[in-house]
Each structure stands twice: as structure tokens, then as C-alpha cells.
Amino acid sequence: MQTSLVESGYSNIDNTNNPTKYVRRLDKQGATNLWQGVKAQMLSLLEVGKGDSVIDVGCGTGSDVRAIAQIVGENGRVVGVDSSTTMIQEALQRAKGLNLPTEFYVGDAENLEFPDNSFDCCRVERVLQHLHNPQQSLLEIVRVANLGARIVIVEPDYGSIKIEGADPTVTSKLIKRRCSHFRSPNIGMQLPLLYKRLELEKIAVTVTPVVNDNFEDNHEKFLLSKYVEPAVTIGLVSAQEGSKWINDLKGAADQGNYRHTISLFLVSGRKPDV
Prior knowledge:
This protein has nine helices and seven strands. The protein has helices at residues 20-30, 33-46, 63-72, 85-95, 134-144, 168-179, 187-197, 218-233, 239-254; strands at 53-57, 77-82, 102-106, 119-125, 145-164, 201-212, 259-270. Strand 2, helix 4 (85-95) and strand 3 form a beta-alpha-beta unit. The longest helix has 16 residues, at 218-233. The chain starts with 19 loop residues before the first helix and ends with a strand.
């Protein structure tokens, strides 16, 4: 069954017409310098040590689970949870024979099936944007976190998107439509306040602008098509307007005036230990 044009396929990978496509996409994205750097920052903030218990909510193929498992050692425990059976099967296959303290489960981020105070570190990367109720997921993460546990989350804020080089009116329409592609497009910006409301301590926030001015990059072209094609399908803009928008961006890029930005919010904090 094809997922709705209005919703990201990551919201329900197993019900897309090609679930393994998302495995390949995660691998490709995870190998980029940007996400390698973000993952390293997250790992540093988690302060993972020998013997720790760690949960990765929305673990995908389990690459971060396996990396963390090498740190916690045989007396530790690293659990990956994902809503996608495809992702969990892939994670299990990749962990097979490595003799690492990893566990993988199909599960609901808004209803984690673990006891209170189970984990020393909780990690979430680009997951809450795909949930109807990310606040509930954060409540669950805090619940399963041990007293004093580190909770580190990174999410984009789609409301921060800016694209320079084409008609601002058309650009605004396409950005608005792109935001509606995600269930919780502004969760990145909302995270610091949610941490405060849950009375987490030692909250730290890093906002990173992700900038691409290379129009000819294949991934960039693919991403821009994701702005145009759904908008044309639902009649928000005409096919001619969409084509002109892309051509105008190309012209701007030829003059060195193309720029596409979005902000990432990396937020860390600790569950109170009393």
C-alpha cells in the first residue's frame, strides 16, 4: 500500500511500496559528514560508560546501537526500538555473530514496553518529527530513564527552512507544503521547552544551521523534487510553476545565489536523581 502524499514514508515504513528503500537511505545519510558529526556529538553528550544500559528509540538499522554496545562492554545493555519490522529485521541481521550486548524490538515510541528507571542513557535521532504525539514519547523516555540518566535528542525544525533563489510566494507555498509532510514538523524548536516542562536538569541546546548551496548535488535535486511533486499533485502550484521554480533556482545557483537552509536542534538533559 502506498503511503499518503501528505505524510513522510518514515512515519510508516512497512506500509510503503518499497520498505528497503528506507534502509538504503538511512545508510547513505548516516555516512555523510554532517550526520557522522551529529552522532559523535550525541555520543559525547550521552557520556556512555562501561556497564551502562542504553536505549535508542527509533534505532533504524541499529548502527548506533552497535557502536554504543562496543563501549558498554559485556556487562552493559543496549536496546534498539523501532516501529518498523523491516528496520528491526535488518538490525538483527547486521548484529548477528558480533557477540555484542544488543537487543532489538519492534515497538511504539509513545508506549515503550520497559519498566520505569531501566536505562542510564536515552537516545533519539530524527524520530519525533514522525510522531503524532511526540510529547507522549518524551514522557515515556523520561519514565524508562534511570534517575540521573542522560537524555539526548536531535530533531530538525522544518519551520526554519529557507530557500533563496526563486519567487518568494511560490517558495513559501512549497515550504508550507513540505512542513505538512511531517506529523510534527516543529518539534526541534519545541524540544527545549518540553525538557523544561518535564523538569529535566542540566539542559543544553545546540542549534546547527544545515546549509546547502550546491544545486547540482544529486541529493539536493532529489530533495527539491520532494517540494514540488506533491504540491503539483494536490494543485497547490501548477506544473508550470513548479518547473519554473526549479529552473529559477538553477539560474540562481549559476550566479552563486542559491541557498537552502534548515536548523537542527540537539538537546540534552538529565532526569533528576531524586
